[in-house]
Amino acid sequence: MIFKSYEEMLEELECEMRRISDDMLLQMFRLPGAAGEVWTPRVDVYETKNALIVKVCAAGVKPENVEIQLSADDRFLTIKGFRSESNVNRRGLVRYYQLEIYYGPFERIIAIPSEIKIDRDKLSATYEEGFLLISLPKRQEKKTRIVPTTND
Q: pLDDT tens-digit profile of 71-118?
């Protein structure tokens, strides 16, 4: 039997609490009267030296069915899209025994850490092996410039 360390259990708990808070954030910002159920894809958010990276589990989602928005204040990244299921997969279906793959519209709102300043003009997204990778480059801090004065 394999046991998890206390640190591993805390890390899992933290990830699940983050997912729950993201889901609650989605519910708070959802427009009233929005039709249908919306599911939330799993994400990893991590920082590199030059960017904040959001990795979205998006297997089966066509890139043209994804919309990415950064709020005007650079504090929230919203990822919306749609995953459709082919009717071919349902031919001959008698009953389901387990349903864990969501289809239909999805939405995920990611809070950007306040200490990270984003260069919104350099955002990029790629789709690789079922993952949507969104790069939010950090804004380069401008260094103080000393202007020399001269006597005329």
A: 999 999 999 999 988 766 667 778 878 878 888 999 999 999 999 999
76 contacts: CB under 8 Å, gap ≥ 6 = 70, 109, 110, 111, 112
Which tokens is 98 given?
A: 């387990």
d(CA 29, CA 35): 14
The residue to which tokens 């979205």 are assigned: 56
DSSP 8-state secondary structure symbol assigned to residue 129: T
What is the per-residue pLDDT across 111-147, written as a single tens digit (0 to 9) for each? Answer: 999 999 999 999 999 999 999 999 999 998 777 778 8
| pLDDT confidence of residue 70 | 95
Q: What share of the chain is helix, strand, coil (3-state, %, to 5)?
A: 20, 30, 45
CA distance 132 to 64: 12
In terms of C-beta distances under 8 Å and separation of at least 24 residues, what long-range contacts does 62-71 make, across chains too? 63/127, 63/132, 66/125, 66/127, 66/132, 68/123, 68/125, 68/134, 70/118, 70/120, 70/123, 70/136
- What pLDDT sits at residue 50? 95
